[in-house]
Amino acid sequence: MQVSRRSFLKIGVAGACTLAAGGAIYRLTNPASSPHRFALDGPAQAVLDAVIPAMLGPALPDAAEARAAAVNAASQRVRDAVLGLPLTTQKEVQDLFGLLALGPARRLLAGVAGGWEQADPQQVAAFLSSWRTHSLQTLQVGYHALHDLIMGAWYADPSTWEAIGYPGPLKELLA
Q1: d(Cα 152, Cα 156) in Å, to the nearest integer?
Q2: What is the pLDDT of residue 134?
Q3: How far apart are the first and last CA of the chain?
Q4: pLDDT surpassing 90 at residue 166
Q5: What is the pLDDT of residues 27-80, one digit of tens each?
Q6: Do residues 32 and 94 lie in contact, with contact meaning Cβ atoms separated by under 8 Å?
Q7: Which InterPro entries would you find in this protein's record (predicted)?
Q8: 116 near 49, Cβ under 8 Å?
């Protein structure tokens, strides 16, 4: 099927309007708990809880209880890392999580039909992979933001270094 330039532009404008309307609806229905600081609400927290295992994969423990504790700790470190960013960047990260938490955007942009709580790990991994290589730069930036926040927060914790064979910083540098 060949799409004309006019149809392509119409679809692009309709998609942009849909995303803008979705973002506006999300902001109206889920006001930020703090207007200046980053905070994850329930649906946005579910996004992070689904994305962390897909990003970290085999780096997480196999035992269910240890895995849940590791995901929870990683989630807290991501929140702490975001709080260390400038306020404008915190707002952008909040918007990214808000967009992914919004039902229509979740379905259209991530391909996750049900809620994030029910998302299959392979489905989340496919969403991340599609964003990583997407032709739209905005989605690539969204992927890299998620990747850098999660990986940075995970490997900033000294308890994760042993698994990758990192002995820690040189003692000469710490003095």
Answers
A1: 6
A2: 92
A3: 65
A4: no
A5: 777 765 544 577 777 888 999 999 999 999 888 988 999 999 999 999 999 999
A6: yes
A7: TAT_signal (IPR006311)
A8: yes
Name the pTM for this structure: 0.74
At 120 the three-state DSSP class reads: coil
Check: CB of residue 76 under 8 Å from CB of residue 125.
Answer: no
Segment 7-29 shows an average pLDDT of 74
Count of beta carbons in the 10 Å neighbourhood of residue 27: 14
Using DSSP, how many helices (H) and how many strands (E) does the chain show?
A: 8, 0
Q: Within 13 A of 125's CA, how many CA atoms are on the CB side?
A: 9
Using the 8-state DSSP alphabet, how is residue 160 labeled?
Answer: G
Contact 53/73 with Cβ under 8 angstroms? Answer: no
- Domain positions in the chain: 5-174
The residue with tokens 């849909």 is 18
Structure tokens, 78: 């991501």
Q: Which two tokens stand for residue 41?
A: 């609400």
